[in-house]
Hints:
By secondary structure, this protein is α+β, with helices and mostly antiparallel strands. It has helices at 3-7, 13-21; strands at residues 28-37, 45-47, 53-55, 66-68, 84-86, 95-97, 99-107. β5 and β6 (95-97) form a beta hairpin. It is elongated.
Amino acid sequence: MTTASRKSKPKTPAAYIKAINQYAGREFAADIEWSSSCNPNATRYITNENGASIEDPTGAPGCGNRYYSRDIPRDPTTGAKLERFICPNPNCGASLRSFGNLTRFGPASE
Ligand SMILES: [Zn+2]
């Protein structure tokens, strides 16, 4: 597999399944792309005094901002993307969850 095909990204669910199935039962390499959104159609989550994420008792919704890999902060100790982070919008402050998606599949030896 060439570097160019390693860089290609499945565009549909069927293409995603085909891309991952070609490595079924074998080790493979992939990139992880992170994303998160601050949902304006649902009550936001906030961090309480114990550090837990709870539904905002005021019922305030999220601000609608979307975040991608470059926006999601890393754990300063491990360097890993944080599973939860505070919405960077200064007028929001919701507790957001980040989600990782595998993409750009390739052979493990590459
Ligand atoms: Zn927000």
